[in-house]
Amino acid sequence: MQVNLLRAKILRAEVTDAKLHYEGSMAVDEELMRLVGILPNEKILVGNITNGERFETYAIPAPAGSRTFSLNGATAHLGKIGDLLVIMTFAWLPEADALAHQPRIVVLAAGNTRLVKLTNPANCDLVGKFQS
User: Fold this and answer.
1) Which of 19, 43, 73, 129 has its CA 20 to 30 A from that of 55?
2) Distances from the Cα of 127 to the Cαs of 39, 65, 68, 116, in angstroms?
3) What phi and psi values does residue 52 have, to the nearest 5 degrees?
4) What tens digit of pLDDT does each residue of 12-35 get?
5) Which one of 58, 66, 70, 132 is the catalytic residue?
6) pLDDT at position 131, please?
7) Cβ-contact 20, 73 below 8 angstroms
8) Own/partner pairs, 110-113, CB within 8 angstroms, 24+ separation
9) Which pLDDT does position 128 carry in this prediction?
């Protein structure tokens, strides 16, 4: 049996931009994507903590270090600059492996300026870049 589990999560990401006439997707700071292991063009589930909207799209890298979270295309209707988001990816795992699985989680401080909490990073070399 396979189970679908949380693989990566960015919590309390603050929307920095919205581009309605962009072809689609959501731009996420490339460093944060690498830190939690979200791949370019990977499907993401996004929950808007501020207004309760939920939507699926795919992640595209925003410039590394920019702290950007941009709602693009139709998703620009589902939030505004300053809204707080939770961004999640999931993976199918065999039930035996699922018991030991630990997701990679980042919790951000206001303004996406630093990490409040980090669990199981995919790339430890990036941790210091989000501590200042």
Assistant:
1) 129
2) 18, 12, 17, 11
3) 85, -5
4) 999 999 999 987 799 999 999 999
5) 58
6) 61
7) yes
8) 110/14, 111/14, 111/67, 112/13, 112/14, 112/16, 112/29, 112/67, 112/69, 113/67
9) 72
Residue 61 phi/psi, 5° resolution? -70, 130
Q: Which residues of the chain have pLDDT under 50?
A: none
Residue with tokens 């603050």: 14
> Is 58 in the active site?
yes
> Does this model's pTM top 0.90?
yes
In the chain, the amino acid numbered 38 is I
Domains of the chain: 2-130 (2.40.40.20)
* Secondary structure (DSSP) of 31-100: HHHHHHTPPTT-EEEEEETTT--EEEEEEEEEPTTS--EEEEGGGGGG--TT-EEEEEEEEEEEHHHHTT
Residue 59 burial (10 A CB sphere; 0-12, 13-18, 19+): buried
Annotated active-site residue in 25, 66, 70, 132: 25
Nearest to 73 by CA among 13, 30, 11, 19: 19
